[in-house]
Design goal:
The protein is mainly α and 104 residues long. It has one domain. 63% of the residues lie in helices and 0% in strands. It is built from six helices and no strands. It has helices at residues 2-10, 16-23, 28-40, 47-58, 67-77, 82-94. The two termini are 20 Å apart. Residues 27-97 form the Symplekin C-terminal domain. InterPro entries: Symplekin_C. It holds the Pfam family Symplekin_C. This is Symplekin C-terminal domain-containing protein. Residues 1-20 have a biased composition (Polar residues).
């Protein structure tokens, strides 16, 4: 976890959504640690940053392994994202993304 936090702290504060997107390229344990560290830093990783990041992640092919975990964590942290998340889920349904790739 401390390695993930150090990565977040060392990142460019002007591009937090890009950093969050890049975390999804790592292994599952690193992704969960990095995302948790991001959610703890609400002054940098705001609701708007997560909206932007989730918008980028939903368009990746294939969908990132822990995408739905990140969506659920974003909803838990920012309940106002519910309408936005409904739009994201609608996009996944329209793309006919396999249900198995949504959850781990």
């Amino acid at each position: 976890m401390s390695e993930a936090k150090n990565t977040v702290v060392a990142t460019d504060p002007y591009s937090p959504s890009t950093d969050n997107d890049n975390f999804h390229e790592e292994g599952p344990l690193k992704v969960t640690d990095a995302c948790t560290a991001c959610f703890e830093q609400r002054t940098v990783f705001t609701q708007q940053v997560f909206e932007k990041s989730l918008n980028k992640l939903v368009d990746k092919v294939p969908i990132p392994l822990l995408f739905m975990r990140t969506v659920i964590q974003a909803l838990d942290t920012f309940p106002a994202l519910v309408d936005f998340v409904m739009g994201i889920l609608s996009r996944l349904v329209n793309k006919q993304v396999s249900y198995a790739s949504w959850f781990v």
